[in-house]
Specification:
Length: 209
């Protein structure tokens, strides 16, 4: 009899969707001993253990693994494509920032990428997220103990997160008029309106019959 050993056919495995400025480990199965690893793309690196670090450039890059002892495997190399996704950036949130208690307002986010490529996560501790769809959220203001509306987004591929973007809301100023509410015909009275300290206002007085 004659004993024949079958050499393994190895493959690289790991995440195919990753984020810029992130790291990930890639492995070869089954093991064929020590490997020489390479990765394309300027600034991308991979060490002898398969630990890859991705730079800030979005793109599709190729990882190559070659056995240091090629006699241990049936193939001399394997390649693996990885899509590096850029982290999205929230550029603004539009909507009312001076609101009344229990008011319901719509807020719309602006980002630097296609809104269909990301998931939105809204937060408003002082309010209730009545509904949200894509880059818009309808929020009811419950109180001003917390005056923050926050948003984060993440790519659907790779789950690459943005930085949290925050705006602040404040209570709508309540204008009041003070003076006598009962007067006699032919007499005069002085009426005073309170002043909003956050803005310059012009007062127009009207006598309603």
């Amino acid at each position: 009899s004659f004993k024949v050993s079958i050499k393994p056919l190895y493959k690289i495995s790991g995440n195919t969707e990753v984020c810029t400025n992130n790291s990930m480990v890639y492995v070869v199965t089954p093991s064929v001993g020590l490997m020489n690893w390479q990765v394309t793309g300027g600034g991308n690196t991979i060490d002898a253990s398969g630990y890859a670090t991705w730079n800030s450039a979005e793109g599709i890059y190729k990882i190559t693994a070659v056995p240091q002892d090629v006699s241990l495997a049936c193939t001399t190399q394997d390649t693996f494509l990885v899509h590096v996704n850029a982290k999205p950036i929230i550029t603004g949130i539009s909507g009312e920032t001076e609101v009344a208690t229990n008011s319901i307002d719509i807020y719309t986010a602006q980002i630097n990428t296609n809104i269909s490529d990301v998931d939105f996560s809204w937060s408003s501790p002082g309010g209730t997220i009545v509904s949200s769809y894509s880059n818009t959220a309808t929020i009811q203001r419950n109180n001003f103990t917390s005056d923050v509306i926050s948003l984060s987004v993440a790519t659907k591929k790779g789950a690459c997160p943005s930085d949290v973007f925050t705006i602040h809301v404040k209570k709508l100023f309540d204008y009041t008029i003070t003076s006598a509410d009962t007067v006699c015909i032919g007499t005069s009275a002085t009426y005073t309106a309170n002043v909003n300290p956050d803005q310059s206002s012009t007062y127009v007085w009207t006598n309603l019959q």
